[in-house]
Amino acid sequence: MAAFPPGGTYFDNAKRSFTQVPVNKSKEDAISTTEFLEASESLTGLFDVLGSAAFRPVKSDIVGNITKVRNRQLEAPLESETLQDLCLNELKAKKHTATEGLIWLNRALDFTAQGIRHNLSHPTEELSTSFRDAYGNTLKPHHSFIVKPIFSAAMSATPYRKDFYPKLGDDQTRVQKELDEWLTALEERVKILNAFLGRKDVIKW
Predict the structure, then answer these.
(1) FRET pair for 97, CA 20 to 30 Å: which of 20, 66, 167, 173?
(2) How far apart are alpha carbons 109 and 189 in whole angstroms?
(3) Dihedral of the alpha carbons of 165, 169, 172, 174, in degrees to the nearest 10
(4) For the segment 45-73, what is each residue's pLDDT rounded down to a tens digit?
């Protein structure tokens, strides 16, 4: 985990927060691709804070899917300024690697958001319980019997909440405020993508 200045928080060192990911309300909630991928990369640092080697597969999965989306963006930048355009234009080209990658990336982001939100809403609940419930709601239904035990092991290896939140910053009032703002922005973008990626013209492949 990268250090932060006294009085600072984990979010001070993040390259991009989900609060900084533009959403164009006038264009059907179009989400800017570059900023979204940067925020997703920054999110993986939370798994380093969680500290267990068991979370490496979770982080690796997210990074791999970010790469799939970014490769498409680099291949066709003018058609990929927003995530929605990136997917629709890729599908027109009879491809779906990046679109599939975004589906899995969004599931992982949803898992992370639900786990942290549930934990914040239940102050006496341990992270392992919160993340296990989130896993059941998001990734687990789509995982094979080979992958499920790997991710289940990660849920059981989460630190105690009394150890986790102090790692995000010394000033817990500021930590809670910034974590909630980040989480609210993440949840909004996950919700937008869930609706888009569930469209018949997007999942037809």
Answers:
(1) 20
(2) 10
(3) -130
(4) 988 888 767 678 889 999 999 999 999 99
Instruction: Quick: pLDDT tens for 96-139.
Output: 999 999 999 999 999 999 999 999 999 999 999 999 999 999 98
Is pTM beyond 0.85? Reply is yes
- Residue 170's φ and ψ, nearest 5 degrees, are -75, -35
pLDDT at 1: 44
C-alpha to C-alpha distances, 179 to 66, 100, 170, 185, nearest whole angstrom: 22, 28, 13, 10
How much is the pLDDT for 205? 72
**What are the two backbone dihedrals, phi and then psi, of residue 118, each rounded to the nearest 5 degrees?**
-65, -40
Q: What are the residues whose beta carbons fall under 8 Å from the beta carbon of 146, sequence distance 6 or more?
A: none
Residue 189 token pair:
């973008």
CATH of domain 30-200: 1.10.3520.10
* C-alpha–C-alpha distance, residues 58 and 158, integer Å: 12
